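User: For a benchmark we're assembling, each entry needs the component sequences followed by a predicted structure for the full assembly. Here are entry 17's components. Please fill in the structure.
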Amino acid sequence: MQVIPPALERLITDFSKLPGIGRKTATRLALYILRRPASEAQVLAEDLASLHTSIQLCSSCYAFSETDPCGICGDIRRNNKFVCVVEEPGDLLSIEKTGAYRGVYHILHGVLSPMDGIGPQELKVKELLNRIRHQDIEEVLIATSSTVPGEATASYLMDQLDRFSIKLTRLACGIPMGMDIKYADEHTLARAIESRQQVKG
Ligand SMILES: [Zn+2]
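Assistant: Structure for entry 17:
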């Protein structure tokens, strides 16, 4: 006898595939949705279905956006000669929250991780180099996390960017070693941007 109805089982299985969600939590979420009015489940289903159709990558910075260019790249008050390179879209949000940065971004969509088969080709590195080649960029601030893969990615980028006549900076002290910048508080992150260290140029 099947205890869990198949439709519920499918939803539990779907939720279990999400990061950080085990089967127990997945079951709790699925049961919660089942107990709520059907209209709420409908809204959730529509939001999920429209996610990939309404959100794309900005063709300049590779942030998730409903417009191309995204709101930041399209904002004429931002300094588009100053590019902050981050690992993930979540890092952009953390830096934006500080209000300390008025330049634009470049999202790598990951970090170098040879063990997981992630090399420069899997990241938006070529796109960054093209941007520097074709746009009038004065400064690149490398804001990868101070984790081992984050540092490896930063060194790789510094090597690649060395040939361009641009100012190259890195986030300064304040971000503890091994810390993902997503978890840094706003003041620490703001200070790290303000006291960024010049590595070249
Ligand atoms: Zn953009």
